Amino acid sequence: MPHDLARAALQGLLTRTSVPRDVVDYIVYGTVIQEVKTSNVAREAALGAGFSDKTPAHTVTMACISSNQAMTTGVGMIAAGQCDVVVAGGVELMSDVPIRHSRKMRKTMLTLNRAKTLGQKLSLISKIRPDYFAPELPAVAEFSTSETMGHSADRLAAAFGISRLEQDEYALRSHTLAKKAQDAGLLQDVVPFKVPGKDTVTKDNGIRPSSMEQMGKLKPAFVKPYGTVTAANSSFLTDGASAILIMSEEKALAMGYKPKAYLRDFVYVSQDPKDQLLLGPTYATPKVLEKAGLSLSDIDVFEFHEAFAGQILANLKAMDSDWFAQNYMGRKSKVGAPPLDKFNTWGGSLSLGHPFGATGCRLVITAAHRLKKEGGQYGLVAACAAGGQVNDAVLHMGP
Amino acid sequence: FAETAENSFNTSNIFSLGYACRNISTSSALHSKTHVSCDIKGDVAVVRFNTPNSKVNTLSKQLSAEFTDVMNEIWANEAVKSAVLISSKPGSFIAGADLNMLEACKTAQEVTQLSQDGQKMLEKIEHSPKPVVAAISGSCLGGGLEVGVPAAFDMMLTGRNIRADRAKKMGLVDQLVEPLGPGLKTPEARTIEYLEEVAIGFARGLANKTVSAKRSKGLMQRLTDYAMALPFVRQQVYKTVESKVQKQTKGLYPAPLKIIEVVKTGLDQGNDAGYLIEAQSFGQLAVTKESKALMGLYHGQVQCKKNKFGTPQKEVKTLAVLGAGLMGAGIAQVSVDKGIKTILKDTAQKGLDRGQQQVYKGLNGKVKKKSLTSFERDSILSNLMGQLDYKGFEKADMVIEAVFEDINVKHKVLKEVEAVIPAHCVFRPVTPPLPHPQHSIAAASKRPEKVIGMHYFSPVDKMQLLEIITTDKTSQDTAASAVAVGLKQGKVVIVVKDGPGFYTTRCLAPMLSEVARVLQEGIDPKKVDAISTAFGFPVGAATLIDEVGVDVATHVAEDLGKAFGERFGGGSIDLFKLMVQKGFLGRKTGKGFYVYQEGVKNRSVNSGMDEILEKFKVPPLSCSCSDEDIQMRLVTRFVNEAAMCLQEGILSNPVEGDIGAVFGLGFPPCLGGPFRFADSYGAQQLVDKLRKYEAVYGSQFTPCQLLLDHANSPSKKFHQ
Questions:
Q1: For residue B158, what pLDDT is reported?
Q2: Of A182, A301, B24, B392, which is least packed with CB atoms within 10 Å of its CB?
Q3: Is the dihedral angle over the CA atoms B696, B701, B705, B711 positive or is it negative?
Q4: At B374, is the pLDDT very low, low, confident or very high (cuts 50, 70, 90)?
Q5: For the residues B470-490, what does the mean pLDDT come to?
Q6: How far does the CA of residue A155 sit from the closest CA of chain B (Å)?
Q7: Bond preceding residue A225 cis, omega within 30 of 0
Q8: Does the keyword Mitochondrion apply (chain B) (predicted)?
Q9: Could B180 and A275 be called an inter-chain contact, meaning their C-beta atoms sit closer than 8 Å?
Q10: pLDDT at A155
Q11: Backbone φ, ψ for residue A233 (5° rounding)
């Protein structure tokens, strides 16, 4: 169950940071597809991980940026003087999503509860038809437009004229870089997880550098038969949980911690969920840079959520287009595209996988690790989410 | 002739793969082309349609000629392996035949010739040795559809609009391309470019055989094909279709029957015979008076979709509707779905609930038909604010009043509203068919220049017409603003001068009075209905009274009778009054001339009426009781009154008169409206009929001066 994964992430965090459990004032977790039994998964995981039952916990949701929301919620609570130490994280269990009975069946079952006599019960049961048993599966589709995200990504890629070849190349790059980073031991944010009854998982298991020929053989997954988005150039859905420790600077220094990174600033923006569903980073990046008083060239490390290769490339093109900036963003000029040598150099969601609710913390901590490794000053994290929403944050290595 | 309907395939793009022709002809006329251009991209030729200075492409002589040239060049060019047909105009492939071209044809032979030229071209494409892909974005109708898709069956008869996804299911098109959002160009420009790219990919695929254009037939399709090959089955199918068409058109529209004949010939005697008779029939049909009438209506409708008062100073963004009855809620529905914030106000919670439910039901019906998503429905409904007080009226740009039809109530409401609305706000009493002269409402207003009347037709979401009534004091800008709102609501708008009954009600009243007279003469309601629908009215005359409401009809007859005297006589008004007394108000009370029951389709005549009709029975007068006479008695009074409205300046032109009568009152579309009918039937003949009935019945049939003028000089026509 999801809270097991979250529990492991929390315990991993405690072990890594040696922070005493009772110092933690509050816990916030992000998740997308909720397990009904643990709808406040933050609380269940915290209790399970041995936190004090006096530490309150709540769960937030904002599609793929749910754990971004968890982190910024924590930051907000600290800024508001509510608390000093917050643990934020995210969890997603894609391998066991809740599947519901059909509405007709649910209605029958609920009425059955209220039926008093055996006769009433039998008459209700006799009304059940075979179609009542058809289950309702959750879909990765926008509620407002009924369009699946992959379909939207394919249209986005077409709108920006991104070819299949470019997309496959980018996906291959992601896998290759992730493999390199994994082999070099750079992905140190991973905590081993013992699956009950099975072996311990010690590393990301979705990294599969393939060849262009192999990828070229795949058929389009969404817009058939002429689309460009395939299984190989899309991020894959996986199980995962993440956790991060957030403190006010004074508290951290007082407790003798050296911060891994400072959160300098962040923004949330949203736009049209149909045609610009995955174009958020283009809108948010110039905004957060302005807010932080920086320019694109100040950034040493870019860490963007890779929902689809086509989506990343479309964003890069949009950010590099004056026409787009003027006509759709109301800006005088483009912000510019991030240079690829600073961009997702340890792989990304395409190769590492995308457990919806947990990805945000991974992006932030990877950016921090990359800044440290490469001696950079500023990192920029961006992630888009269903509903046409997006979060952008600037990290800073500190004084 | 249904294919001239002006609407479209919707916004999505379709492209169709068609296999085509053997004939290699080598004429390559190199004169400059203005309608069709051709680009060679590698081994694929891209043919672009672009009618200059027009929003849509139409199949004109020039376009056809240039297209033929281009295709011949393509077939002759060795380097070209396949072709893509596409429009340079986003949203329009080819919207069908050029109406102006057809109207310019004097004889059936001319049209037949045009049609045959077109057929030859299409046949060549159908059998082209090089694959041809039609990339269709937007409306693709009539001949345009044939260029894109050489085969259409069901569509031929009904002329309906098919959404792209339906077209794919029907096998009309092979692939769909979804419209794109913003990229490095505008969505429209990029979408059409993308459509072209995808189409080129398919054309290439077809040429090198990596893609197959064969449409796999389902089991049902194969069974149908098998059955249709049997002559016996075919005969049965023809029979069924013919009787169905006969029933629906009453034989008044020649086109559907001709179409069946053409299909029959094509299937039974082969393609060549089919093509020949198709071209001949098309030629004959194009010059029928029905075709002229329908084309006239089309042009009239286009004219009534323009705002002759210009752009209003202030766009109406917030609208307030007073009264959540059938009318008020209907107006709210057609406003919210165009993005206008609408306040729906009523005085009682119960009435308000009913109104809100009506709006919801109307929109939800569209969800069920899949023309809206449930999400769109919800976001449209967020434009609707139901309330019992005047909160927010200070932001209203326009107030539409649809309260109970009582001049005192109207005056009271006007006073209340004027206390809360801003200075620029327009006040528009909605006018159900009752003849309250607008100036009497304007008279009570502090700002009469801002008062304008509107006559919507129930059900508002279905009826296309809106009659706007201006008084002497109404300002130009107020009129512009009212027309703009009407057009935004999707209405066909006519603007008339104030006067009792305005235009539409005034024309209808004498006809209904005559209906009453006919009923008094002992003709039963079913017969009256049959006679009037046989003439082309979509709703029978007796049923019409039930639909309007007997109480309303009484009220109208009484008021207009006072205003116009004998001319509105004929039937006895006491007949209606007694019906009202007995509670026979028509459909709304479940009883009128007929009995209406929920779920019962074949309604029966209300037996309670026997006694009433018996009481008012008058002996039929000789010489005027044949079916044709009855039809003419109804129609001549209608036409005479319409002409009177034009004569008095209530109407500003005959076009609006025709549009108002057809779209608002159901005047037979095949006749094109009262003025078109007067032209085609002949003013002299009309006057003769009127004089004949005048001699028998009296002055209600006295022809008006304008008709007499037209009768005296045969060259005078309402429509040139």
A1: 45
A2: B24
A3: negative
A4: confident
A5: 88
A6: 6
A7: yes
A8: no
A9: yes
A10: 93
A11: -105, 25
> B425: which 2 tokens?
């706000």
Its pTM stands at: 0.79
What's the token pair of residue B266? 């094509």
Chain A interface test: which of B184, B210, B370 (most A C-beta within 10 Å): B184
Q: Closest Cα to residue B266, out of B253, B255, B280, B250?
A: B280
Q: A86 with A24: CB under 8 angstroms?
A: yes
Cα four-point dihedral sign B587, B593, B595, B601: negative
> B115, B102 in Cβ contact below 8 A?
no
With an 8 Å Cβ cutoff, are A272 and B375 in contact? no
Q: Identify the H or E element spanning A325.
A: helix A322-328
> Does pLDDT of A265 surpass 90?
yes
Return the higher-pLDDT residue of A374 and B16: A374
CB B23 within 8 A of CB B75: yes
Lowest mean pLDDT, pick from A47-51, A239-243, B458-462, B503-507 = B458-462
Q: What digits encode the pLDDT tens for the residues B425-437?
A: 766 665 544 444 4
State whether B181 and A155 contact (CB < 8 Å): yes
Structure confidence at residue A341 as a pLDDT band (50, 70, 90): very high
What pLDDT is attached to residue B225?
Answer: 72
Catalytic (active site) residue B376: no
Q: Which residues of A touch B185 (CB under 8 A)?
A: 323
Number of H helices, E strands in chain B: 29, 18
Task: Please state the rounded mean pLDDT for residues B254-265.
Answer: 76
- A133 min Cα distance to partner chain B (Å): 23
The model's pLDDT over A213-259, given as tens digits with 9 standing for 90+, comes to: 999 999 999 988 889 999 999 999 899 999 999 999 999 999 999 99
Residue closest to B203 by CA, chosen among B147, B131, B151, B266? B131
Say if CB B464 and CB B434 are below 8 A apart: no
Q: What is the DSSP secondary structure assignment for residue A133, as one 8-state letter?
A: G
CA pair distance B662, B675, nearest whole angstrom: 11
How many inter-chain contacts (A to B, CB under 8 Å) are there?
57
Nearest CA to B256 among B266, B246, B265?
A: B246
The structure tokens listed for B458 are 């129930």
| Contacting residues for A183 by C-beta, under 8 A, at least 6 apart | none
Give me the residue from B194, B201, B375 closest to A158, CB to CB: B194
Strand order in the sheet with A57-60: A57-60, A26-30, A85-92, A240-247
DSSP B456-522: E-SSTTT--EEEEEE-TT--HHHHHHHHHHHHHTT-EEEEEE--TTTTHHHHHHHHHHHHHHHHHTT
User: What is the ipTM, given to two decimal places?
Assistant: 0.86
pLDDT cut 70: percent of chain B above it: 85
Alpha-carbon separation of residue A309 from A85, A160, A211, A382 (angstroms) = 37, 13, 15, 15
Cα(B511)–Cα(B661) distance, rounded to whole angstroms? 12
**CA geometry: angle at B552 spanning B546 and B553, to 5°?**
65
Chain B residues touching residue A275 (CB < 8 angstroms): 180-182, 187
Coil, strand, or helix at residue B58? coil
Q: What is the mean pLDDT of residues A274-300?
A: 93
Contact between residue A306 and residue A312 where contact means Cβ atoms under 8 Å apart: yes
